[in-house]
Amino acid sequence: MTDLSAFNITHFAAGSANVRVATLPPLSAPAASSTPDVDDDDDGFSLLSSDDSSNSTSPDLTDSSRTALQLLYPADSINPAARPLGGAEFYAAPLDLSNASSVTLTYSVFFPSTFDWVLGGKLPGLYGGRDGCSGGDPAEDCFSTRLMWRKGGVGELYLYAPKDKQPAALCADPHSVCDAAYGLSIGRGAFRFPAGQWTTVSQTVALNTPGKADGGFALDVNGVRVVQRSDVYYRGTGIRAAAVFSGSRRAMGMRRTFFGGHEEEWATPVDQYVLFRDFAMVKNA
């Protein structure tokens, strides 16, 4: 595994063996018919260049060839907690977001043209309060804003936040499906991830006033706004006010991606991979 130090990974929960660095042709997407070359000897790899005094990070695009994170999903894998272990989960902190109230996370993702979507899977997003805000967690003192692909490449925001505090309007949208046992599917079908092409997603989270459902979430896909909400409840008052972008001095978002769901019907039937690149983060406020 090559140098991912610029991410400032604080916790690699699972799947480190499934993460590689792929070398891509300059300014072009990888051929759909072949797996990109994996560069295990490039100790100088840096996907993000960050500065502690800065409010943003951005990709290092100075190399003559491009690099991307390649995430492997082995056949029959469902999620990083199951066997075989699929995808990966790690928490990164390239910026000090302890006092942030609005943050934007951007990255590009590539699904090969032969990708089997099965029933769906999770993609990276932001989190706040503490880690582990997923997998049926009640999310009373945390939140996470992962993206998700569904069957056929249908996309959505997969939101974990205090479920009983969300306004009815958030789930009344015809594009939203709210499951009391797991996360809230917001804007399902508002966009699609096309196979064989790079898709750039940019999500902005603006924290709510503690105790009020006035938080913001916006999602742009290839520069087009597809989801926008101003009624999200991310954090409460008192002890729940801890749900800010950090439980420590430095925090960011989770890089969590896998097939699932937790049931066998979500598992990928064959070995598959997805590519990620152009990670960037901005502290807006």
Number of strands: 18
End-to-end Cα distance, whole Å, is 34 Å
CATH architecture level-2 label: Sandwich
Rg calculated over all Cα atoms? 18 Å
Low-pLDDT runs? 28-35, 38-53, 59-64, 239-243, 246-252
The helix-and-strand class reads mainly beta
Order of helices and strands: EEEEEEEEEEEHEEEEEEE
CATH topology: Jelly Rolls
The shape is globular
Largest sheet: 10 strands, antiparallel
Q: What is the chains' assembly state? A: single chain
**CATH class membership:** Mainly Beta
Count of domains? 1
Estimate the helix proportion, in percent: under 10%
Whole-number mean pLDDT? 78
Strand content: 35-45%
Counting DSSP H or I runs of 4 or more residues, the number of helices is: 1
Keywords: Lyase
InterPro entries: Polysacc_lyase_14
GO molecular function: lyase activity
Organism: Schizophyllum commune (strain H4-8 / FGSC 9210) (Split gill fungus)
List the keywords.
single chain; 285 residues; mainly beta; Jelly Rolls; ten-stranded antiparallel sheet; eight-stranded antiparallel sheet; 1 helix; 18 strands; 42% strand; globular
Q: If you had to describe this structure to a student in words, what would you say it looks like?
A:
- This protein is mostly beta strands and 285 residues long.
- The chain has one domain (5-283): Jelly Rolls.
- The chain contains one helix and 18 strands.
- The protein has one helix at residues 168-172, and strands at 9-14, 19-24, 37-38, 48-49, 56-59, 66-73, 88-92, 102-110, 120-128, 143-150, 154-160, 177-178, 184-192, 198-206, 215-221, 224-232, 253-259, 272-283.
- Strands 2, 3, 4, 5, 6, 8, 14, 15, 16 and 18 form a ten-stranded antiparallel beta sheet that branches. The protein has an eight-stranded antiparallel beta sheet with strand order 1-7-17-9-10-11-13-12.
- A hairpin with an 8-residue loop joins strand 14 and strand 15 (215-221).
- The radius of gyration is 18 Å and the shape is globular.
- Mean pLDDT is 78; it is low at 28-35, 38-53, 59-64, 239-243 and 246-252.
- InterPro entries: Polysacc_lyase_14 (IPR048958).
- It comes from Schizophyllum commune (strain H4-8 / FGSC 9210) (Split gill fungus).
- Residues 63-279 form the Polysaccharide lyase domain.
- Residues 29-63 are annotated as: Disordered.
- Keywords: Lyase.
